[in-house]
Amino acid sequence: MPALAGPDEPWNLQPTLAGWHASLAINQRGRDMGAGEAFAWWRLPWTWTRPSGWAIEPHLAAGLGWLGGRGETAGTFRLGPAFSVRPPESPFWIELGISPTLLTRHTFGGLNLGINFQFTSYAGMNWDVTRHLGLGYRFEHMSNASLSSHNPGLNSHTFTIYYRF
Q: Around 136, how many Cα atoms within 13 Å sit in the side-chain half-sphere?
């Protein structure tokens, strides 16, 4: 069973990392759609560590950006849990997360996302190039979870650059 470390230090407001996501939609419904987002992660005060050295760290992830295409642009805001899965002594790590997402509009030309409230789930791989600079890729899926009769969903390739504090 993995060891669960309790709060090892008080939670503070300095993010663990911050950066930029650039996304391109890949499904047919989302063609011609793209997004950009400034984001930050705050490490939560728990860590699960396996005897092998693998660690799972929970984070609070927030993003502020835009989603656009087909002559229309929306502002976006998301906030939700994320997890990093780290092997011992490796610059590579996995990220998993889901965030409730607010949009300032939900129609883009002929694409109707249903409502302004969506969920964005993702899984990706990151590389700490240096102690502070990193690059990543993640697959994202955004949909309203059938809260609306229109729920086409949007799948995206997302590329990341980040700074680790």
A: 29
